[in-house]
């Protein structure tokens, strides 16, 4: 029997501060994937400015999306990285993200505290168990990885893989296709990578696509996202993360 190829799509940085952008991205994904077959990564208090707990209308919107079938992941707490880094971690923090790798430098106890708090908030908003935890900017330090194993959350992912959070068992491998709006150079390079991915990644059993609120600020990014979703929706079944967690 031929194994089903799966497409996992997600919207990052979901919260009341990006309500309009998230609505726009959700509509695009629903249209291309044939329904709400994607995940949302919820930030409990983005940069300390947009607390989900103080936004009852947005919490109700999250519940409606969850009721429709959208998976909800905990996506850090602040999303902002306040830690001082050295060595390789400093390079990652400086060059891979704009001070948003919140869980890169946290000690295990603090990482676990934020995971528990975030899980409680997301589950209170949706009335369902969180699908898992994905660190901001896909960056995990040793403390975050240790905390994940104790968190009780089901799934995690980074740039290159999806894994079982408790056992570290790898469930899918391959680069996530994502876009960048922070600078013109990053925008051009992310569009180029998406074009290459459409040519070479269809051979993978699991393909991941991730979009961000900032993507809606540039029409060329939305066009690339739309084309990429359409391409992989033809060869891969739009799926829930839970479907690879067997």
From TrEMBL:
It holds the Pfam family DUF2334. It comes from the Bacteria. GO terms for biological process: carbohydrate metabolic process. SUPFAM superfamilies: Glycoside hydrolase/deacetylase. This is Polysaccharide deacetylase.
